[in-house]
Write a structure and sequence with these properties.
The complex is a heterodimer of chains A (about 290) and B (about 160). By secondary structure, chain A is an all-alpha fold. In chain A, helix 9 crosses helix 14 and helix 13 packs antiparallel against helix 14. The longest helix of chain A is centred in the last third of the chain and has 21 residues. With about 160 residues, chain B is of the alpha+beta class. Chain B has a single domain, classed as 60s Ribosomal Protein L30, Chain: A (2-Layer Sandwich). In chain B, the strands form 2 sheets. Chain B has a 5-stranded mixed beta sheet, with no helix packed on it. A 5-stranded mixed beta sheet of chain B has the order 2-5-4-6-7, covered by helices on one side. In chain B, a hairpin with a 6-residue loop joins strand 4 and strand 5. The radius of gyration of chain B is 15 Å and the shape is globular. The chains are: A mainly alpha (about 290), B alpha+beta (about 160). Chains A and B meet through helix 11, helix 15 and helix 16 of A and helix 3 of B.
């Protein structure tokens, strides 16, 4: 059977994607280093005027209710946290990729951005319940980029979504990712991984993008991070913040229990806190 | 025609001609829908979690978020539009409460939401006349004043009446 997606056409589409700015790339690299300091982030933002402007606009958004206008990056970062600066940089550099409707998934315009932002926040919340030390903001960044592959894959996937749903209902495949593999010969995680390599994103983020539905396949040192995003992704879908027809049609890997202590009440807190922070973040990031 | 959109934890009721109460993307959340055949009023609450005791501050800020607080508030809202304050005679429908594909009890918030709502409905002597709950799909639901119809939409699955 011929596959519905031409792999070579996908490769060419990825090749045509604009590269990340050097500031955004540096920012993602710095954030991926667990030993980085806030000062490292401030330096990068200060040297990028467009990023500086967006950060100041976000911190002065009415949702934060600050009485006095914030005009310095140092103060803005202390209010917003690194994760919001990363969100702004990613949004700036990915342009239409996040905001266009995902045709193949029947998602509304902005659906991918909302899902990834919610997943970012939820992944960070999940990471707070880790058994050991955890870089919370790296979990956020991983969540923010985990589904980026859908932005390119969706264009090629198109009508196959209905067939995928049929396969799942009939029990031919176990979840949506397997349906993508079966019908297209590749899936959104592979496409995202190729995009991450094209953008030269840090290896930890590449691992999140490639393995977020099968975290046990990530190399051992990356597994806590990938599991955090795996669970954050599920929480996002449960909260109704999905990317369309594939919403909730994935498997949960119970291996998360090795890394996180999640009881039903903890999970309820994660949903609650994520939804609250998401509302604020979404409002302040309106460009 | 006027549309009232409810977010997570919101509740609302309407009985003016052309009115519609709608909520988007339920996921594991559940919409409890009340219809009064006598006054023609319709109401809905978008419940996200079963029990408010996990977070008192949030329970005060957004009581509709929780099944135990949201349902009584919706019944009060219906009473404001002329329905009995004890909920008697109201028709109940439940929509939502989906889960992921794996049967993991910790993550089955949808099922816990549905059970909690039913438990609190029983306290009023009520039970759902119809329900479209569970499964692995997110639902958007509307209830219309003129017809009393409850219409569910789902990406990739189309729309249907409950």
């Amino acid at each position: 059977m011929s596959k519905v997606v031409d792999r070579e056409a996908v490769r060419q589409a990825i090749e045509k994607l604009p590269l990340f700015s050097s500031a955004a790339l540096q920012l993602l690299q710095v954030i991926s280093d667990p030993d980085h300091e806030l000062e490292d982030v401030i330096k990068i933002v200060k040297f990028d005027s467009a990023l500086t402007m967006r950060v100041l606009k976000a911190v002065n958004s009415p949702v934060y209710g600050l009485v006095k206008e914030v005009t310095s990056i140092d103060r803005a970062l202390s209010y917003l946290g690194e994760r919001m600066v990363v969100s702004i940089a990613v949004q700036e550099n990915t342009g239409q990729l996040f905001s266009k409707p995902l045709e193949g998934y029947q998602s509304e315009p902005g659906g991918l951005w909302r899902h990834d932002l919610f997943t970012a926040i939820a992944s960070r919340e999940v990471a707070r319940y880790a058994n050991g030390n955890f870089d919370l903001d790296l979990a956020f960044t991983g969540g923010l980029l985990h589904d980026i592959g859908k932005s390119v894959f969706a264009t090629f996937w198109k009508d196959a979504s209905l067939e995928a749903l049929g396969q799942i209902e009939q029990g031919i495949v176990s979840d949506y990712l397997m349906a993508e593999q079966d019908l297209a010969g590749l899936d959104h995680t592979e496409v995202g991984y190729e995009m991450a390599r094209h953008w030269q994103l840090p290896e930890s983020l590449q691992a999140v993008i490639l393995h977020h539905h099968h975290p046990a396949e990530a190399i051992e040192c990356m597994q806590p991070l990938v599991y955090a995003v795996h669970v954050g992704d599920i929480v996002s879908m449960m909260a109704g913040c999905d990317t369309g027809s594939d919403g909730l049609k994935y498997q949960l890997d119970p291996g998360y229990q090795e890394f996180f202590n999640l009881s039903p009440n903890v999970l309820a807190e994660i949903v609650l806190n994520s939804e609250e922070e998401f509302s604020k973040a979404e409002a302040s990031l309106v460009s | 025609m006027s549309q009232s959109i409810l977010g997570i934890g919101d509740y609302g009721a309407a009985k003016h001609p052309g009115g519609e109460v709608k909520t988007f993307a339920l996921g594991s959340c559940v919409a409890a829908i009340l219809l009064d055949p006598r006054t023609k009023a319709v109401g809905m609450v978008h419940v996200a979690l079963p029990d408010s005791s996990i977070n008192e501050a949030k329970a005060r800020q957004r009581p509709g978020y929780f099944a135990d607080l949201g349902l009584p508030l919706l019944i009060q809202e219906m009473a404001r539009l002329g329905s009995p304050a004890n909920g008697r005679g109201l028709v109940v429908k439940l929509v939502g409460g989906a889960s992921i594909m794996d049967h993991n009890d910790t993550f089955n918030i949808g099922k816990r939401n549905v059970l909690a709502l039913k438990k609190h409905l029983w306290a009023y002597g009520l039970g759902p006349l119809a329900e479209d709950v569970g499964g692995n799909h997110s639902r958007t639901v509307s209830v219309f004043v003129d017809t009393g119809k409850v219409i569910v939409n789902c990406p990739g699955r189309g729309q249907w009446e409950v």
